[in-house]
């Protein structure tokens, strides 16, 4: 259902609450964000309503969060949005939606982490706590968490596009990072719980360090290297080694190499999204470009 087919307004959200969760309908409502899959409406001081609006897959992702996050949240050292209520499809709005806790903080694409040591330690503690063996029946990743070779075509297309746009100064160096990662031995351990989408807009900051993680729509079980790409994109210069020193269990060389490949892939995607935002193209987010360029610069520098 494209987002043009239904307009989500404060009045609609309040009507949905009156219909299914009337005890929450009197709280203040204000638009929080429009994401790739969902709209987020802040509900009072402590809650939020997430409604699918831009992709058909958003329905399944919301139900996944509702099913799995309440059990994961108590074990995580950073705050995450914990589903509280489920809204079922109705004649008024024919898709599921959820009420979650509100997580305070500023997205890192707008307020990057500046306290390098504290941010590295906070991110390492969060992923150490999250990366536990997932139970049978845990969701699989949509297009990540498996062998890097599965993403080779996407990597090549993004690198070619970014190079043609003049956004990549040394495409051969970027390709070398990817090829080294793709040639690393694969993950032989159990499938671990992964966030799966740790870009700067999904990690929140306060006072220069990380305070929360949001949007678990891509939550799945797989190779931890996918999440271990995050420090390259999220942390300030000089903090990546501290992150890997604090993360437990200490990743082996093959996992570190695969993480670099996932980081290069994510950086290219964010560079293209950032450029689209600079030039006013649909789906663009100009704040995504600078941290992605910094990540590629660091990846290339450490490969030499």
Give structural notes.
- The chain is of the alpha+beta class.
- It is built from nine helices and ten strands.
- Strands 1-2-3-5-4 form a five-stranded antiparallel β-sheet, sandwiched between helices. The protein has a three-stranded antiparallel β-sheet with strand order 6-8-9. Strands 7-10 form a two-stranded antiparallel sheet.
- The longest helix is centred in the last third of the chain and has 26 residues, at 253-278.
Features:
10 strands; three-stranded antiparallel sheet; alpha+beta; five-stranded antiparallel sheet
- Proportion of residues in β-strands: 5-15%
Helix count? 9
Terminal Cα separation, in Å?
Answer: 47 Å
Please provide the count of β strands: 10
The topology string of helices and strands comes to HEEEHEEEHHHEEEEHHHH
Please list the strands of the largest sheet in the order they lie side by side: 1-2-3-5-4
User: Structural class of the secondary elements?
Assistant: alpha+beta
Stretches where pLDDT is under 50 for at least 5 consecutive residues are none
What would you call the shape?
Answer: globular
Could you give a quick summary of the protein structure above?
The chain is an alpha+beta fold. The protein has helices at residues 10-20, 58-72, 116-130, 152-164, 171-182, 230-234, 240-246, 253-278, 289-303; strands spanning 29-34, 38-43, 47-52, 83-87, 97-101, 106-107, 192-194, 203-206, 209-213, 220-222. The chain has 9 helices and 10 strands.
């Amino acid at each position: 259902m494209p987002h043009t087919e239904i307009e989500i307004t404060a009045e609609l959200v309040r009507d949905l609450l009156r219909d299914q969760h009337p005890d929450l309908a009197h709280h203040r409502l204000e638009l929080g964000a429009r994401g790739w899959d969902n709209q987020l409406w802040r509900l009072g001081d402590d809650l939020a309503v997430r409604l699918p609006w831009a992709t058909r897959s958003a329905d399944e992702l919301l139900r996944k969060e509702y099913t799995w996050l309440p059990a994961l949240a108590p074990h995580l050292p950073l705050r995450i949005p914990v589903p509280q209520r489920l809204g079922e499809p109705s004649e008024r709005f024919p898709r599921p939606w959820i009420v979650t806790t509100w997580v305070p903080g500023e997205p890192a694409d707008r307020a990057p982490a500046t306290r390098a040591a504290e941010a590295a330690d906070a991110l390492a503690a969060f992923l150490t706590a999250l990366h536990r063996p997932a139970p049978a029946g845990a969701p699989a990743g949509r297009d990540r968490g498996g062998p890097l070779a599965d993403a080779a075509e996407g990597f090549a297309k993004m690198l070619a596009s970014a190079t043609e746009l003049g956004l990549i100064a040394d495409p051969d160096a970027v390709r070398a990072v990817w090829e080294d990662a793709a040639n690393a031995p694969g993950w032989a351990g159990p499938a671990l719980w992964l966030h799966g989408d740790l870009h700067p807009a999904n990690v929140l900051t306060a006072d220069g360090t990380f305070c929360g993680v949001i949007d678990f729509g891509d939550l799945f079980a797989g190779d931890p290297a996918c999440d271990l790409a995050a420090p390259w994109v999220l942390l300030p210069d000089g903090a990546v080694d501290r992150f890997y020193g604090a993360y437990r269990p200490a990743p082996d060389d093959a996992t570190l190499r695969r993480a670099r490949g996932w980081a290069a892939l994510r950086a290219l995607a964010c560079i293209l999204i950032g450029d689209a935002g600079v030039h006013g193209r649909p789906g663009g987010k100009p704040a995504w470009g600078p941290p992605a360029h910094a990540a590629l610069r660091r990846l290339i520098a450490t490969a030499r």
